[in-house]
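> run fold Copper transporter
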Amino acid sequence: MDMSRKIYLFSSYLVILCASFTAAQTSCPPSPVVLHSTLASVCSQEPARSAIGCSMYRLCRNETLDPPIFPVLCDTWRVASSLCSDDPKYADSIGLCNQLQGSYKDAAQFRNCMVPYVGIKNTSSIRILHLQACAEMDTPSEMLGCLSCTAESCPNPLLSYSQGCYDMDMGQCNPWSGFCLSSDASPLGNGAAELCVNPNLRFEAIMAPPRPPSPPPDPTSPPPTRPSPPPSLPTRSPYLPPPGGSLPNTPVPMNSPASPLPQWTPPPGIRNPSQTESVCVTNSSLLECASFEYPATNITVDLVSLCTSMPYMPGCTIRTACQAGQVTGNFCRPMTLLATICADMPSMAGCKSYVTMCKNTSAVQHCKKFPAIPGLPSTSAARKAVIDMCGSMEMVQCETCNKVSCPDYIGAMSSMCAEMPYMVGCDVYASWCEASAAWEQPGGDGNSVRHYCRGAEVYGGATSSSDIPSMLMFFHQRTREILLFRSWLPKTAGEAFGSFIAITGMSFATVLIRTAQHIMVTAAATGRLGPLLAPTLTPPVLWWLPSRGQMLLNLLSSIITLVVSTLDLFAMLIAMTFNGAYFAAVVLGYGLGTLLLGHLRENYQRKAYGAPSSASSSAIVFGGDTEPCCGGGAIPPTTIIGLGSGGINTGGNAMAVMAANGGIGSFRVSSRQVDVLDGKRP
Ligand SMILES: *[C@@H]1O[C@H](CO)[C@@H](O)[C@H](O)[C@H]1NC(C)=O
Ligand SMILES: *[C@@H]1O[C@H](CO)[C@@H](O)[C@H](O)[C@H]1NC(C)=O
Ligand SMILES: *[C@@H]1O[C@H](CO)[C@@H](O)[C@H](O)[C@H]1NC(C)=O
Ligand SMILES: *[C@@H]1O[C@H](CO)[C@@H](O)[C@H](O)[C@H]1NC(C)=O
Ligand SMILES: *[C@@H]1O[C@H](CO)[C@@H](O)[C@H](O)[C@H]1NC(C)=O
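> ok
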């Protein structure tokens, strides 16, 4: 007991000790002030000039850059940190780092307290990654950044590497995506759009935080506590080692050779196109090559090399789905997959054999027998579509698919378009599935990409979604608008005019039917619709039970109400297109209806109640009260009230359908109430 208590105390003491130790390690003195003039002169000479920090600094100072680099990345201390935590080749070439280290207890503390850019720290390594990726391209000009950065000369590795990554991620881009998805470049790389976002996708206006006043202020007045002397004349603090000297405590290894630009040698993984390839691959137009077949092992080798470097290519996604059994049949034949991928990215090294063997003058029948998957979008088309979709609506798929990266464009695209048909960009998806339907074999284990295309059925074959006008939630004017049904899509001015008339007619008809209902109820109440519908005098056993006539009348009324509310809601849905003309048509119909039919109710009521011949009606309406009150030319108050409620009902908008519903009943009640009142009137 006592022992365990001691152990507990001891261990907690240790924990506290460790915590305070690490706290001491990580607590940093205020970061030293780095002047712009210092950075400018440091970045004016090679090799520092091509280091990540100086590349970023140049971008930061570029006034014409749109969108600009966000200020958080442009802080001079960040730039200096990036320079000083870079490869020794770059860091040791400048005296700045040694001066800055003077503000810290020791080299370790200095190293811990620097804040280089997340992900990208080592200029040598991103340069090597970029050159390797370019070497994988058959024609380097096909990939952005490969011409501006070669093994011989690479003036701006960061920019070239970033261009390569937003153009074509071939597995070299982990440092880049680490940076672009970090909080440094947030949101989503927009903080450094020049480096992180493909120019084709920079369509959204990026709201940059305000730039610091330009030119950024150089503290000219009282020099900071530790002013940085001009870096060209590195002064040595007494407690600092001479720069470049070997010291056990220096933060970075000092063993790198002093050669400014090390020769780059291709890494062992890259295949060297050999001259030993079969003659039919290099010279495929030879007649004897007609029966040549590209060996299966070579297909596999090519596919593996392509899909290892760019697993997100649609062809590679399909290959993965084939291996998982989700896609079957002809879609999964290796040669088909190779054809698909090489149609997408013909310049990649893995496609070299295929492209020369299967160029369109080729005699090789093997190529023609295995065409690419019909309609499968290319990587860039799929990426554009997914980005468009995510721009128009925030969906879960957009969490993994953004402007910087996406593990599976095809999957994201098909699931978004299935969930939300007719989204912008879904025409790519719909036309793929439509084209691929030619290969589809229903049933058992046939050919199928239904795993992806199941959601495409709503697109209904021939019509692509591209003709679906987008939904605008504000008043606008245009001809093309989907009205209620997929097929009601006026395209020409004539069709639009016809639709206008039809809509006006529809809302007019609504008023007409409602008036007819009113008249029917009045007629029934006055017994004009025959004895069946006539109200009975004898009260039912239970007051709330309808009489036979009332039941029939309720039935008729409810049928009419179904029709009227359907029309009303149709009118509302049309108005909700926010299209000015169609909105006007709806209102115009209601207005015209009231204008032309508004009087009918009153006239009919007057006719019904005013006719002295209908003894039964007066008997019924007045409940036996035979006082002749309302005959002749006197206008019974009924009509006034009726007109009032009629006015509301006739102009009733769709939102008031329920009220209109009740309106019938309330009319009946109100007319009787009035009638009774009327009867009691002296
Ligand atoms: C600034 O950026 C623009 C656009 O990227 C570029 O054309 C220009 O050369 C840059 N200017 C400098 C001084 O780097
Ligand atoms: C930078 O990368 C190069 C090449 O990958 C490597 O040799 C070097 O040690 C790295 N330097 C640092 C400081 O990590
Ligand atoms: C297939 O690959 C092997 C090994 O890489 C190579 O020697 C051979 O020439 C290739 N065949 C064709 C037809 O390209
Ligand atoms: C390819 O074949 C054609 C037709 O026989 C011939 O003219 C041409 O020289 C050949 N090319 C090579 C590189 O062998
Ligand atoms: C071969 O392709 C080229 C370019 O894609 C095209 O101009 C040419 O017409 C094609 N030739 C044949 C026979 O299809």
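The pocket of 2-acetamido-2-deoxy-beta-D-glucopyranose (ligand 1) is lined by residues 58, 62, 64-65 (CB under 6 Å).
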